[in-house]
Design brief:
Shape: globular
Number of strands: 14
Distance between the termini: 59 Å
Radius of gyration: 25 Å
Low-confidence stretches: 1-33
Mean pLDDT: 92
Amino acid sequence: MKKSIFLRYVSGGCLALAATLCLSACDSLFDDAPQDKLTDESIWSTENLLDEYTMPWYSNMSNGWAAMMSTSSFLNMKYMSYITPAFYSDQTTYGVSNWVNSGVGEEMASKESTISLYASNRWKAYYTQIQSVNRLLEHASKMPETYKQRILGEAHFFRGYYYYLLLQRFGGVMLIDHNYDPLHSDERFPRADYEEMVDFIAKEADLAAEALPLKQDNRNIGRVTKGAALMLKAKAYFWVGSPQYQNQAKAYNGFSSDKSKEYMQKAAEAYKAIEALNVYKLMPVSGSTEEAIAQSYHDLFLQHNNDESILEYQHGESKLKSEGAHSLDQMAMPPVLTGTQCAYCPTQNHVDEYGMRDGKVLDSQQPYLNRDYRFYANVLFDGTTFREKPMNLHYTIDAKGKEVAEDGLTKYGTGRNNGFSRTGYYMRKFLDPKIRYPYNDNEGSNQNYPIWRYAELLLDHAEAAFRTGDTRTALEKVNQVRQRVHMQPLADITLADILRERRVEMAFEETTFWDELRLGTAVKNLNGTTNPLRLMKIVYQKDGSKTYTTEPLANQKGERAFRDYQYYYPLPWDEVRFHSVEQNAGWVEK
């Protein structure tokens, strides 16, 4: 009888060690180790332990659909709030009015101390994973050949991936490619310029692609693949080739000249390489009626790791919260279905992005008629039905001539802060109409969170091609995405067409937020003064007619703001002093 150790992945990104007594046939692993600790040697030489070692690389990619919104100042809990980056765009807003006082709300309102805190937390999280990768690579020679290649492929992918996340948030950062202990080393690192950053990420992606399989076996579903590595490379080129990073004064904020065509061409070639793998495809959308087409498209986002998926945050098959389940359906549920948070309410800004089909013209008295099929899949609007409940998102006129909100626009329950839609819409995309709701104790939802999928690749490729003058390829890629969902193909293409298609196809996905940064449109579009979020107000009149009025939400100046220097997060001031590097412009230590 000997002591053995097992590890299990705990949702949230930590490795939990638990000791248990068991009979073991391969017990020599721990003969020389302390009975309550793992040695380095045992980790590097044991596949199961190495798999557990890599789990934080995966769990820190994203929070997935997990979210927490607190307004409590007790123990600074409000600054533990987090939610998908898509929440920061102009496509959705929240239904609980006091969420403006959460940490997320303060970040959206451009409170500098909150932005600095969130920046520091992300910096630490990303560099922690990079250091973990560096440590593993230092011990690579100790790994058995049977699984060494896969583990090293994952290591190079994630070192590139976390530098990509740092590039998105901070610009050029310190490139550290070896195990580094600042407490016992005199090394200091400069900030890399954009060429150094993208070259490093692309090199890591290439090393990962050489080592990783085209597809993972059933035991490793959800782990990164060759396609994900090539997508990382393409995304890095695509990012630095975007408008925001051209003609910049500082090399760590972009290029001193316009290198857009050069890097967009590299991006286009990288996307072609992924397409040539013949691993990914657009999942088919079936049906011949508006309802059937919309339902088929909607259901794609409930599938796990289908042929369109390049990389997903894995919430698992179980609906137990202890095993990775989340609360998306609860957070987004309309009040008529007992929802109290109404966290993802589509805006009229977003609804206006859905075009008409088959050459039809928008009818202001029937604004939901003949729209892009994806509108019906993504948005709950007045008169539609969800989970067998009608969505009454309108007002009626009572006997005194007063407007009275119907149940879709009033809160459920008696909670003072219970929410309801401020825009006249609720989100449908990603919601599972078959999930048991209200949840049983300790249960939740298990939709995976898309990080990269093939439709996004095609739209990236379209934009990259267009920016290099290849309009034929741009038109072809956009029409592939449109025709998949039974929309008529475009006859010609403009940049505005491509960007609009991105906003519709990628609705409520985090790409919609990142696009505002890379395109340099965040100052305009993420400010309540220059781009106010708008609502739809529908009133059923006594004579049977309806009035449709769009108007801005109230109090947006205090809710949504974005200043020019926020395109780049502030580096932690301790890092600025320690490495003697420059801070991103506009940030002042307080």
